[in-house]
Amino acid sequence: GAGVSQTPSNKVTEKGKYVELRCDPISGHTALYWYRQSLGQGPEFLIYFQGTGAADDSGLPNDRFFAVRPEGSVSTLKIQRTERGDSAVYLCASSPHPKSGPNSPLHFGNGTRLTVT
Amino acid sequence: LAKTTQPISMDSYEGQEVNITCSHNNIATNDYITWYQQFPSQGPRFIIQGYKTKVTNEVASLFIPADRKSSTLSLPRVSLSDTAVYYCLVGDISGYSGAGSYQLTFGKGTKLSVIP
């Protein structure tokens, strides 16, 4: 079946611009996560959604980062006033509701590579 | 959140068994141990998960001693296509305890290079 889809696969933007990154989770998965991965590092947690609400946004680095999931399916990660330090691969993952079974594995997309020039 | 320590890199020849050990000394009672594999330009992919003793699937085995302070991922007869970064994660995302964190923490992982 279809996996997690992320668009665009690559995004180049100028410093100070606004960007939106989209994630289409696996159908029926209520849990959705955003991670950020810099070169040579492991993925870094940003935010977790359970349904439409952000259950844990403690990983967002500052108020320039915001994410929404208005209908409990597709999610958009929004970054305002981009900085060169925001350059990274942004990964989205989904899983069934955590209470459908302990520690349901995450299914990751292939990410959006964001480059801020 | 339990912190994990694993080797930065490992080399192996094709056909050999590879064992990657992860230390997690402050693992909590509700924590599970999960391993992911990541190829370049792809997102991490789930390999195996366990709580205690031994778990085996079609891809790998996971050995967890009684004290659960470490775990070993075993890949039988590796091939060139097993060259990847392997991450060990410890955590509880079930929320059953009411205090579970949703932050699964990835370390830097172990870069496995399989040599012909």
Supply database-style keywords:
heterodimer, A: 117 residues, mainly beta, Immunoglobulin-like, 7-stranded mixed sheet, 4-stranded antiparallel sheet, 0% helix, 47% strand, B: 116 residues, 9 strands, 45% strand
* CATH class categorisation of the domain at 21-100 in chain A: Mainly Beta
Count of beta strands of chain A: 11
Cα end-to-end separation of chain B: 38 Å
The overall pLDDT of chain B, averaged over residues, is 89
Helix/sheet category of chain A: mainly beta
Could you characterize the architecture of this molecule?
The complex is a heterodimer of chains A (117) and B (116). With 117 residues, chain A is an all-beta fold. Helices cover 0% and strands 47% of the residues of chain A. Chain A is built from no helices and eleven strands. In chain A, strands 2, 4, 5, 6, 9, 10 and 11 form a seven-stranded mixed β-sheet that branches. Chain A has a four-stranded antiparallel β-sheet with strand order 1-3-8-7, with no helix packed on it. The N and C termini of chain A lie far apart (37 Å). Chain B has 116 residues and is mainly beta. Chain B has a single domain, classed as Immunoglobulins (Immunoglobulin-like), CATH 2.60.40. In chain B, 0% of the residues lie in helices and 45% in strands. In chain B, strands 1-9-8-3-4 form a five-stranded mixed β-sheet, with no helix packed on it. The termini of chain B are far apart. The chains are: A mainly beta (117), B mainly beta (116). Chains A and B meet through strand 4, strand 5, strand 9 and strand 10 of A and strand 3 and strand 4 of B.
How are the SSEs ordered, and which strands pair?
The complex is a heterodimer of chains A (117) and B (116).
Chain A (H helix, E strand, L loop, with lengths): L4 E3 L2 E4 L5 E6 L6 E7 L6 E7 L2 E4 L8 E4 L6 E5 L8 E8 L11 E2 L3 E5 L1
Parallel strand pairs in A: 2-11
Antiparallel strand pairs in A: 1-3, 3-8, 4-5, 4-9, 5-6, 7-8, 9-10, 9-11
Chain B lengths: L8 E5 L4 E6 L8 E7 L6 E6 L2 E4 L4 E4 L5 E6 L8 E8 L18 E6 L1
